[in-house]
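ARCHIVE CARD
CATEGORY: sequence design from structure
SOURCE FIELD: tokenized fold
FIELD CONTENT:
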């Protein structure tokens, strides 16, 4: 895997985690996301790139 793609995925993972962690529990609940799911969702998002 090339370093640019690795960095892009890492960056996407970090941004997704940061944005989801910024939401309150009510907002996450409205989206159907448990706080414990944030890292998995971020990994899934980053791996789709």
């Amino acid at each position: 895997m090339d370093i640019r793609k690795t960095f892009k995925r890492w960056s996407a993972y970090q941004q997704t985690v940061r944005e989801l962690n910024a939401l309150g529990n009510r907002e996450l609940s409205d989206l159907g996301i448990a706080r414990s799911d944030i890292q998995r969702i971020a990994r899934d998002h980053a791996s789709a790139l």
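CARD ANNOTATION: The chain has a mean pLDDT of 96. Residues 3-47 form one domain.
SHELF: design records, drawer C
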